[in-house]
Amino acid sequence: MKITLAQIKCVAKDIDGNVAKIIEAAHKAKASTLVIFPELSVSGCECGELFHDESFIKKCEDALDTIAKECETIPVLVGCPVGNFNAAVYMFQGQRKVFKKKQLTTAEKKFFEPSDEDALLQIGCHKYAVTIGSDLANTNDDEFLLTNRVDDLMPLAPDVIINIGAERCGADRSRQRRNELRQNVLKTERPLVFVNNVASKKEATFDGGSMIFGYESYVVASAPFFEEAVVDVNLECLISMKHEDEQQDYEL
Length: 252
Hints:
Low-confidence stretches: none
CATH class: Alpha Beta
Number of domains: 1
Number of helices: 4
Number of strands: 12
Strand order of the largest sheet: 5-4-3-2-1-12
Largest sheet: 6 strands, mixed
CATH architecture: 4-Layer Sandwich
Radius of gyration: 17 Å
Shape: globular
């Protein structure tokens, strides 16, 4: 089995441009079980009040139909606003399943509603817990007692955790992010796939660095920082027993 990290630059409000990139990246994936795109990859993240605009949301939802048609034989998971929710949408051969973000940031609460729907994505014999951005952030005041969205999904017995994000760059942010995601792997004893939005280093916004953690909680595959990339990863790497991260930190 193979998973593809589709780390593309998703531009706010540029639905047509984002959709073109999604379709192009999906077709670059080689016999992938699932091609995964960043959070709000259809709309872009910083759309502000447009998230309250019904015509904008409809255009985003119509764009899903375009992606489904152009990628009919390619299983994709794309970030998109759906109704009043920040969602991840799985599409393949006429199937469609929507996963909605529960743990919203303060800024997101102005535009989206939280969801309490608990469901997994089943592909073949594997089950995936689909989370979005801050769903994996710790809500516990004690940094050593991790509490987040995954607690709701673990009773459903997922095999792999997926998180699509729009994580910004910052001083020492690459190391901090790895440690935060690693906490989830150590707690759940499940591999984790993280796919991030990206921009150039000059723009100093989204930094990419998408990655996959194996069972031993180390990064066994990753995409570069500040560059668009489509990375195919054989799931056999998840059983890697190495004790060193592949991903290196960056400096601003």
